[in-house]
Amino acid sequence: MQKFLFSNKLNYRLTRHLFFILGTIIFFSVIIYLSGTHRNYWDSLKITTVNSFFFLGYAYLTLFLFIPFVLLKGKIFRFLLLFFISGILLSLLKLLFSDEIFYASISPEYFELGKPGILSKLFINAKDMSYVVALLCVGKFTKDYIYTERQLAELENQNKEASQRLLQSQLNPHFLFNTINNLYALSLLDPKQTLTVTRKIQKVLGYIVEQSRHNYLSLREEVDLVRNYICLEKLRYGKRLIAKIVRKGDIGQWQVPPMVLFFMAENGIRHGSRSDTGNPWLKILVDAQKDFLILEATNSKPQVYYRRNHEGNKGKGLQNLKKRLEILYSENSYKIDIEEDDHFFCIRLKLSNMKNGLDRKSYR
Prior knowledge:
Helices cover 64% and strands 12% of the residues. By secondary structure, the chain is an alpha+beta fold. The two termini are 18 Å apart.
């Protein structure tokens, strides 16, 4: 029932709208039939079907065209004008197919004193359709409000869980232990670098503890986090680890969920370098264009790692990433691709240009 009411997937949406349209036609045809104005139920069904085609068409035009593309952009006068003109035109078109007025079918006593003229019929029919549009708007925005509140609650819980998980698993104790040991060794061999490394550790931990609570942060901050993280990992792997970050476009215009790029880099180092006794490598690509953003992490795959059954290890982290994106972005606003062979593993994330996914998902 939850998916049927709130899911944005095409099959659920089509089923939901089809169920609503058929239910509306049957419901009002029964009302007309019980009012006694038509002896035959099929006549009532015919009248309701013809009227519903135009009534619901008016409602769908308003809900999915006039409101999101005109009213929500602050063009109130244009919205009112389009709403009025489309109501009159649809009423005129309906009266060409059927001379029946829906309200007259339910309460004929209001029309017994004299038949209304064509102009009166147009305004009466447009008024009737406006009532239906108003009811559907109330129903839709109530559903969207409930959906948005649930998404916000789920996102808040997920952020809390993510903060704990990041400290407990992604930034695992081995990383902290090895970094502290390397920092101690560095203080003996090259004391001048100790302060620099300490500041990088402070920035990484501070970002994870504080900044990861936000839904979106500057892409530039995320890239700086990954750069500091890679520098700290190089203390452990030394010159064996070859890592580079390639940037394209203007990254200053983009905001991304915190820790997304960090997870991709951390996943590449953890799975690509830990078991590699040779020369592991990691390449991070950040391609920031006007209409889309591509985040890509490609890492070497050691043969000893390839021979293991590692699907369970990488699957859980990737599922967490997908779940976070699913909550923050609408279905068509992001895409994750995975490419791998015997020698490399690549995660590619493409995001569409928007202020945030939740704004788009609140009006569906």
